[in-house]
Structure formats: C-alpha cells, structure tokens
Amino acid sequence: MIETAASVPGIHNFLATSGVVYEVIACDPALSDTAAFCDHYGYALETSANTILVRSKRGDLEYVACVVLATTRLDVNNVVRKRLNARKVSFASADETRAIMGMELGGVTALGLPADLPLWIDSRVMAPSRIILGGGDRASKIIVDPAIFHQTPATEIVPALAK
Q1: Which one of 11, 37, 97, 120 is CB 3.0 to 4.6 Å from 136, fit for a cystine?
Q2: Inside any domain, residue 55
Q3: 34 vs 154: CA distance, rounded Å
Q4: Domain assignment of residue 109, yes or no
Q5: Where in the sequence is the domain holding 122, given as residue range(s)?
Q6: Lowest-confidence pick of 5-9, 21-25, 51-55, 144-148
Q7: In a domain, 78, yes or no
C-alpha cells in the first residue's frame, strides 16, 4: 500500500508504478545528510543507504551511480575504477550531480534515474527487509524493500562494491 508520494515527479512515477510497498517520510532539509537524519529521527545506519555519483577523470567521461549502506564506504579507487576501466575516478561534483540526476546532495536517490545511467548496488544493500534512501530532495527520505532494485534500469548488484 502506498502511504504517500515522493515530491520529485520521476521518482513518484517510478514508485507509483513499481507495485512495491514504500513510505516517503518528511525530514528537515538541514538534517538530510544520512548520519544527521538517522541520529535525529532514530533510524539505524545499518538500514540506510547512500547513492553516490562517480565519474571517470580522464579519457571518455563516464558516470555511474552507486548505492552502499551508510555503514560502509564505496570502494572508489579499486572496484569502481576497475569496473569503469578508468585510470582515475572521483566523486561527481554537486553541479554534475544536479545536472545528471536532477537532485541535490543530501537528497540523492537511486530511483527514477535516467535509464542510460549505470546503477551499481553493493550486494549488502539487498540484505535488509527495508532500506532508507534519499527522497530525491533534501526534505524527504524513502523507505522501501531493496527488491525495488530489480526494477531499476541499467542496474547491477555488485559484490564488495563497498568496504
């Protein structure tokens, strides 16, 4: 049963047609960063996930969105770099994230992304029965079954994407 709708149209449309149970919860935009959100609202970091946009630094510019649990760190310099077949990679800037994903840092989610943007999910994200993702804006979070990632385009579940 859908309890509410995400405020970003692409995310709302994706969730509304997914058939997956989800909940959108409001949060103070000043508390949208994962650690601050969990601490203030009483949610566990172990069931919270961060979506991070990474880019190659040299050669053909490539981007990938990665999702990792908040208790882990994305293995950018090994796993991501090798999978992108790039000499160097870095986190995308706030401007790049806004331009490519249409979202502000602190509200980035892996749902409703452009269909041609690769999405890599650390396999540990799939373990909890529900996870907390960014809501697409700094004023909301989405609680959803990680099985939703079986419906997202260009998605791969990657073992050891994070440390």
Answers
A1: 11
A2: yes
A3: 25
A4: yes
A5: 9-158
A6: 5-9
A7: yes
Q: What tens digit of pLDDT does each residue of 131-146 get?
A: 999 999 999 999 999 9
Cα separations in angstroms, 63 against 72, 79, 83: 21, 14, 11
Structure tokens at 57: 């630094």
The number of residues making up the chain comes to 163
163, part of any domain: no
Cβ atoms of 46 and 72 within 8 Å: the answer is: no
How does 131-160 read in b/e, with b if 16+ C-beta sit within 10 Å?
Answer: bbbbbbbbbbbbbbbbebbeebeebebbee
- Cβ count within 10 A of residue 111: 27
Residue recorded with tokens 């077949």: 85
> Global pTM?
0.92
List pLDDT tens digits, range 117-136: 999 999 999 999 999 999 99
Domains contained in the chain, number? 1
Number of neighbouring beta carbons within 10 Å of residue 59:
11
Distance CA 132, CA 144 (A): 7
